[in-house]
Amino acid sequence: MNNSVLNQSWIGREATIVSSNDPTHIGKSGMISDETRETITLLEGEKQVVLGKSSIKFKLGDSDVTIVGSLMRQRAEDRIYRNHRSE
User: Fold this and answer.
1) Using CB atoms within 10 A of its CB, is residue 15 exposed (0-12), middle (13-18) or buried (19+)?
2) 20, 22, 34, 78: which has the highest count of C-beta atoms within 10 A?
3) Residue 25 confidence (pLDDT)
4) What pLDDT, in 10s, does the model give residues 49-68?
């Protein structure tokens, strides 16, 4: 997994949901406007959608890296300074 994507701030970046326990979330995309330990908030046009990290996989921008939300369940400020193992 590409550590540079994982160790960057996600707020302000475009994200696309590629997998979810809720089929209605698959394919949603928008700008990440907020991130907490358990959730990310996507801004889809004028609508904010709050998604639980534990149930989604997503891609940032045009990156080929799929981020498994359940492995990223920590605060953004903790995640940015954390070292991740390669899979």
Assistant:
1) buried
2) 20
3) 94
4) 999 999 999 999 888 889 99
If you average pLDDT over residues 7-23, what whole number do you get?
92
pTM of the full structure? 0.81
3-class SS of residue 56: strand
| CATH code assigned at 11 | 2.30.30.210
Task: Name the domain count of the chain.
Answer: 1
Give the angle subtended at the CA of 1 by the CAs of 14 and 44, to the nearest 5°.
15
Asked if residue 10 belongs to a domain, the reply is yes
Q: Is residue 54 part of a domain?
A: yes
HEC string of 4-41?
HHHCCCCCCCEEEEEEECCHHHCCCEEEEEEECCCEEE
Tell me if residue 63 falls in helix, strand or coil.
Answer: coil
CB 73 within 8 A of CB 53: yes
Q: Give the residue numbers spanning the domain of 26.
A: 3-80
Q: How far apart are CA 38 and CA 64, in angstroms?
A: 23
